[in-house]
């Protein structure tokens, strides 16, 4: 893997998109992002001490039929590495947020350009949070009472993502799916699903084999939701 470092940049995802000769498995990381972006057009607070990085992944790494699994595949690789590194129990909030108990430790923004997936990953490590937009966040430092080496975590996560792509190529999605299903943060919870102008209440009912969120709607009927421009909140 090749690594490109910036002290300060608007967004590592934006930068990755501008590279004219993109090389797969290039990792762009920054100490600080001034214009960090999250899913659904939100901004992503990226102050010093966190891991803010983007991996360029060739779209030939995965069959078109499996594109819908990519958010979960990458989420699973991030979750697995964080649990391995810290010995703590992290879960996946579908499609690809990483949670510790009821707080978000990591978020993933996947974009597609040309023949590449631009996978942006933010992990709260030693950074300060609590300001606007990070109220529900938690940092590894608080979870584990240790300061972790940010570069080591970036490299470890990037390698693990590559490894998870190898696994799916080798036909091991079943194994990853079982792992994800056992770490499904939303399972059994009352949720609200927000989709552009509409919102609906439901109960989360697991993840389908092809990566959709299974829900029971208010009439008790099962439905499956595709990730995309939707967000899911716990209905407290
Ligand atoms: C989310 O949870 O909404 C996704 C957050 C993704 C943040 C990362 S940080 C590195 C990369 N660059 C960005 O601008 N965003 C992603």
What does this structure look like?
With 236 residues, the chain is α+β, with helices and mostly antiparallel strands. It contains five helices and twelve strands. It has a seven-stranded mixed β-sheet, with helices on both faces. A five-stranded antiparallel β-sheet has the order 11-10-9-8-12, with no helix packed on it. Helix 2 crosses helix 4. The mean pLDDT is 94. The structure holds biotin.
The biggest sheet, with number of strands, parallel, antiparallel or mixed sense and barrel status, is: 7 strands, mixed
Helix content, binned percent: 10-25%
Q: Which strand order spans the largest sheet, edge to edge or round the barrel? A: 1-2-3-7-6-5-4
Structural class estimated from helices and strands = alpha+beta
Order of helices and strands: EHEEHEEEEHHHEEEEE
Question: Please, how many helices?
Answer: 5
Give the overall shape, derived from the CA principal axes: globular
Number of strands: 12
Q: Which spans of ≥5 residues are poorly predicted at pLDDT below 50? A: none
Report the C-alpha radius of gyration, rounded.
17 Å
Small molecules bound in the structure, each named once: biotin
As a percent range, the share of strand residues is 25-35%
On the 0-100 scale, what is the average pLDDT?
94
First-residue to last-residue Cα separation: 43 Å
């Amino acid at each position: 893997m090749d690594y490109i470092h910036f002290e300060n940049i608007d967004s590592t995802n934006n930068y990755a998109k501008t590279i004219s000769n993109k090389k797969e498995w290039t990792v762009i990381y920054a100490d600080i992002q001034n214009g960090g972006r999250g899913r659904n057009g939100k901004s992503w607070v990226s102050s010093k001490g966190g891991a803010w990085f983007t991996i360029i992944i060739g779209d030939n790494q995965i069959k078109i039929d499996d594109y819908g699994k990519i958010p979960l595949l990458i989420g699973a690789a991030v979750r697995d590495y964080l649990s391995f590194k810290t010995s703590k129990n992290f879960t996946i909030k579908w499609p690809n947020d990483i949670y510790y108990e009821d707080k978000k430790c990591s978020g993933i923004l996947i974009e597609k350009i040309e023949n590449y997936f631009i996978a942006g990953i933010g992990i709260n490590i030693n950074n300060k949070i609590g300001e606007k937009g990070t109220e529900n966040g938690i940092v590894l430092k608080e979870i584990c009472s240790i300061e972790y080496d940010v570069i080591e975590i970036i490299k470890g996560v990037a390698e693990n993502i590559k490894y998870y792509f190898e696994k799916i190529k080798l036909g091991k999605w079943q194994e990853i799916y079982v792992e994800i299903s056992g770490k499904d943060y939303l399972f059994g919870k009352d949720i609200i699903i927000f989709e552009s102008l509409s919102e609906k209440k439901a109960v989360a009912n697991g993840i389908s084999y092809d990566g959709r969120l299974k829900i029971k709607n208010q009439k008790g009927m099962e439905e499956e939701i595709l990730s995309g421009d939707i967000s899911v909140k716990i209905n407290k």
